[in-house]
Amino acid sequence: MTTISLQNLGCSKNAIDGERILHLFTSNGFTHTQECSDAEIIIVNTCAFIREAQEEAIETILSMASYKTNGKCSKLIVCGCFSERFRSQAQQKLPEVDIWTGVNDWQTVLKDIAKSTSVTPSFERTLFEPIATQHLKIAEGCSHHCTFCVIPSIRGSLKSRTPADILDEAQWLYDKGARELILVAQDTTRYGKDIGASLVNLLEKLLAQTRFPWIRMMYLHPNFISDELLELVASEKRVCSYFDIPLQHIADPILTAMNRKPPSSKIYRLIEKIRTKITDSAIRSSFIIGFPGETERHFFELTEFIEFARFDKLGVFPFSPEEGTEAYNLRPRPVNKTVQRRCDELMTIQREISREILESRIGSQMEVIIDRVSDDHDFNFEARTRFDAPEVDGRVMIRSGNFSPGTITKATIIGASDYDLFADV
Q1: CA spacing 20 to 30 A to 393: which of 2, 118, 148, 285?
Q2: Quick one: 349 and 369 in the same domain?
Q3: Cβ atoms within 10 A of the Cβ of 51, count?
């Protein structure tokens, strides 16, 4: 049996593509190994969203290429966004790679290599631990054209999947052991606008036709969070009252330069509306610091907004000028030292907010999902509340009990740090 290994880079949406590619091989008799040194075929599924992701892609490709001399690798395959975006240049500069394939042609390119004869549903994929928490991609591409973003040029415009196809995959995931279903797209709120469907209607179908105890949504655009969606989240306990809303900035001149909507006044009202309608909600956001034209006044507006919104979770990223985007040529850009100082200031404010929120939960009982056995000998398990998404948010460290990963149970919160909770069961 030919052995194959996968290196998945980038976001959860890209990871799903990598799992589908791996399934193409394993469903046709190839053996999956996590030991790269044992793999005869190595696949690197890449990201190219920002410069750091591109650098990681190159480093990983070169690292995997070393197994062609120090391991068993005879074929190195690179796919994903980096390959889609830079294939022509990379083919010349990285001759170690045997096959390049992008986000749209991998099935055609890899089918012969996989000696594909089996016929399986297109959504089937090789799942990784923890099996109990799985992402489901409901749409591809994006039609917003934010001036800093390369996604439309890589992935194309919005292409929603049919509700029937999504429901089939959701049931398949449940049958495989998934208990937390996480809906993802480049903009989840715009799901279905190209096929006469909607996110609310999709959620209603998932609630009626599947038995997932937790359904979570990621990547909600602030301009398209409807009252109907808020009412559904407020009334349905199985839909986690977790709002992941990448806002990018709050100063109106910067939002305009980013081609982001709505204006700041409506963003303030949206935060107030969510807090009012759903009192037990958690809001996560992310911001780009150092966008061209950002002044100290714009940054001050952002710090004021962070203190007003009191986000449960927050990500802060320095602006990455990407060639091919409108923002690439915008000036002036704040110097790197200024950008780093602003990032640090925001995270200092957020750290205090996060600790205050988490400390307020000490003594309460919260529902958690067990992710894995803890590597820390002081604790038995790592878990999450319904207010925490995997990989990007905090953990609940459980010091008692005996559970299988995927178990959803009540835990008593006994302590808190800046971003994590500690609990007994």
Answers
A1: 148
A2: no
A3: 12
